[in-house]
Amino acid sequence: MARSSNSRDGCASAIERTMRNPMPQLPDSAREMLRGKAYAHVVTRSAGGRPQITMVWADEIDGHLAFNTSRGRVKLRNIERDPQIAVTVQDPRDPQQYLVVQGHAEVLPEGGPEHIDRLAVRFLGLDHYPYLQPGEERVTVRVVADRISGAGPWVPAPRG
Fold it and tell me: How many CA atoms lie within 13 Å of 118's alpha carbon, on the beta-carbon side?
């Protein structure tokens, strides 16, 4: 059965979405939420293809969702093998609102230790991240969006 042309946009491929809107940045309302104490669920794909989900402290860097992790963690190994990622963030101010970002992850080459310390100030009220282990290498992961959705002011109202 053929699909109507009206439903095509809902099924557009990532390549088509990227061509229409290359590297969409988060709307201001989503950026504001991420600057608060927002927790995110990061979904990566294991080597066997199963989803792997981890809760992280959410952040915003240069208009993109970001989070911090350590070298050797499962989510980072998954990202380095397959950068496809999905992240959900529940709005701490209104739990009925949430942000969904689908795209690919980029591991930033510098600034991981400083980033985790900034997050420790926000989430723990401490000047430095207290759980750093000897030899642990912290990295920042930026999520480059192919698609931004969810329920909240960051989602455009339906047309029609």
Answer: 17
Residues 18-76 have pLDDT tens digits of 334 556 789 999 999 999 999 999 999 999 999 999 999 999 999 999 999 999 999 99
CA–centroid distance for 31 within its chain: 12
Which residues span the domain enclosing 136? Answer: 14-151
Q: Distance (Å, rounded) from C-alpha 56 to C-alpha 2? A: 41
Domain total in the chain: 1
Strands (E), 29-109: 39-45, 51-57, 59-61, 64-70, 84-90, 98-107
pTM: 0.83
Does residue 9 lie in a domain region?
A: no
CA 95 from centre of chain: 18
How many CA atoms within 13 Å lie on the side-chain side of 76? 15
In the DSSP assignment, the letter for residue 110 is S
What span, in angstroms and rounded, lies between the C-alpha atoms of 123 and 138? 17
Q: Which of 85, 137, 87, 99 is nearest to 116 (CA)?
A: 137
Residue 157 maps to a domain: no
